[in-house]
Amino acid sequence: MPKESLAFAIDYPTLADARPTLESLSGLIGYAKIGLELFTREGPDAVKQTRAAGIDVFLDLKLHDIPETVERAVAGAAALDARLLTIHCSGGPGMIERAVKRAQADSSRLTLVGVTVLTSLDAADLEAVGVGASPADQVLRLATMAWKSGLRAFVCSPREVGALRAALGSDAILVTPGIRPAGTATHDQKRAATPRSAIVDGADILVVGRPIRDAASPPQVTRQILAEVDEALALRRAGSP
Ligand code: C5P
After folding, report:
1. pLDDT per residue over 67-88, tens digit each?
2. Can you tell me the distance from the alpha carbon of 152 to that of 122, in angstroms, rounded to the nearest whole number?
3. What is the second-level CATH architecture of the domain 2-238?
4. Would you tell me how many other CB atoms lie within 10 Å of the CB of residue 69?
5. Distance (Å, whole) CA 28 – CA 226
6. Contact at 8 Å (CB) between 174 and 164?
7. Ligand 1 pocket test, candidate residues 207, 214, 225, most atoms within 8 A of CB
8. Residue extents of the structural domains in the chain
9. Per-residue pLDDT reduced to its tens digit, 159-181
10. What confidence tens digit (pLDDT) does each residue in 182-201 have?
């Protein structure tokens, strides 16, 4: 189902602002991604109301804390029936193992998604926090470590999909933001990819925000993206780019 490959980033200040678009997309998106802006304003209600609208939740909280605290936050997200939850791989093996174990417990349907190096960081930023590796090498190092600790899903830019797929294999679930349908504005996304190329390159879930949020008709743009995803999935299955 192509819609399972699409997460709509509900980047709105309040749930009331998000609701009309969200309702218009019911049945068209696999997940609604709730990030820090909405969650810090609306809290768990944002998740509950999205679930009540029949939409699965991708909770993008990028957890990074001591293992005990992260484990408890994972339990909270599972209790809210979130399906995807981001954690920072730089929290280390102990934090990741505890988080993964908790997500798998209690028959929750929660999958943890690892964030490696934020795309806002360049080599100079990494150097400033004591990391001498290049961003590309650090992405691979963190993802490989997290994989060994039990994590199976990762956020990455469309450009990193190939390297991560090669390093982690076909079981990895790769989630990519920075998606722009051909001919639409790229905004601040410097390395945008089309839905088609991201899927053909091996992405599993596309995160799309502004191209849908700011469209004159969000359902129409979403249907176009889904059609592109469907076509790309067929190409991928056939093994031809
Ligand atoms: O509006 P746009 O499609 O650019 O939204 C992409 C979403 O993915 C936003 O919620 C943004 O915070 C998130 N994101 C991103 N780039 C990353 C990680 C997350 O754009 N590297």
Report:
1. 999 999 999 999 999 999 999 9
2. 25
3. Alpha-Beta Barrel (3.20)
4. 13
5. 8
6. yes
7. 207
8. 2-238
9. 899 999 999 999 999 999 999 99
10. 888 888 877 789 999 999 99
